[in-house]
Every structure is written in C-alpha cells, then in structure tokens.
Amino acid sequence: MPGDMTTITRVGMGYDVHAFAPAEAQRPLIIGGVTIPHDRGLAGHSDADVLLHAVVDALLGAAALGDIGAYFPSSDARWQNAPSSDFLTSTVNLLKTQGWQIGNVDATIVAERPRLSPHVQAMREQLAATLGIALECVSVKSKTTDGLGFAGRQEGIACYAVALIAREHSV
C-alpha cells in the first residue's frame, strides 16, 4: 500500500590497529574514550583510540559512506592529537542527517597488556553516551592472543567492531 513504511537495516564491520608509541613519547593510552594506566600509549596522528576508530569504520561501512580516512585523514593537521570522540560524534551526526539510527555496537579489543577488563564498563558507558544509545546496546570485550602475533608480542593493540543501523523507508 502506498505510504507504507519498511525498516531497512544494515551491518558494518570496522577494524583498526595501532602500534605502541615509544615510552619517551609519553602518550596516554586512550581506549574507548577512557584513559588506561599503562607505560605507553598508542602511536597515531590523533589520540589513536583504536576502539573508537574501529566503531567509526563500522558505522561508516554500514551506511556505505567509506572509511575513517575519508573524513579524518592523518594528512590533515586539524586532526593532530584530536580526541577520537570527535570523530565518533561527527560520524553519528552524519548518519543522523541521512536518517540512520544506531541499533547496537559490538567490539572486541585485542591486547596482551594492559589488562582491559577492569575498564570495559567505563568504555561501554562512554560509547553509549557518545552514540546516543542505551548501555545495553553496547558490547565491548577484550581478548588476548596468548602471546601470538604483534598483539601477543605487545607491539600494539587491535580492535574489531560491528554496528547495526536502521532507517525507515517508504515503499
């Protein structure tokens, strides 16, 4: 029937990885918008928040809008040391202008050290607040690699994220 509405849903997958910066760089370790006590932060043009970068890519991917580098390139000086929460807020606003609503986000951080599980709840709370969705719609997990690969050698941290978005569409 004309004027009927249907819901379109899409899923996007994001991934990000950052190497640890040298200790002498004295960068804070920021994951999910939360500062984590550790002797080294992650190297990157912005604050190198691996979780938020993966979530931004998942959201952009779900909406078929490209990737984080298209909107926040490391070649642009205005993003130097920028908080990644700015990237996420901008992405959420972009999706809203296109009628998308965020359904849920699920992320897995891969790191041997530091131990992240004590900080997961704070990360979830930060993500939910920035995304504008309920805490129950945000999942963050941390995993080790049992000493395997770059994460296992404590050279850096990776993150995988999946996001579900939806919008109404008239048929």
Can you describe what's shown?
The protein is globular, with a radius of gyration of 17 Å. Helix 1 (50-62) runs parallel beside helix 3. It has one domain (5-170): 2-C-methyl-D-erythritol 2,4-cyclodiphosphate synthase (60s Ribosomal Protein L30, Chain: A), CATH 3.30.1330.50. 27% of the residues lie in helices and 30% in strands. The protein is built from five helices and six strands, in the order E-E-E-H-H-H-E-H-E-H-E. The strands form two sheets. A four-stranded mixed β-sheet has the order 1-6-4-5. The chain has helices spanning 50-62, 68-71, 84-97, 120-131, 149-152, and strands at 5-19, 29-31, 34-36, 101-110, 138-143, 156-170. The chain is of the alpha+beta class and 171 residues long.
In short:
It is built from 5 helices and 6 strands, in the order βββαααβαβαβ. It has 171 residues and is of the alpha+beta class. It has a single domain (5-170), classed as 2-C-methyl-D-erythritol 2,4-cyclodiphosphate synthase (60s Ribosomal Protein L30, Chain: A).
Instruction: Give Rg in angstroms.
Output: 17 Å
Any guess at the CATH architecture? Answer: 2-Layer Sandwich
Counting DSSP H or I runs of 4 or more residues, the number of helices is 5
- Write down the secondary-structure element order: EEEHHHEHEHE
Integer count of domains: 1
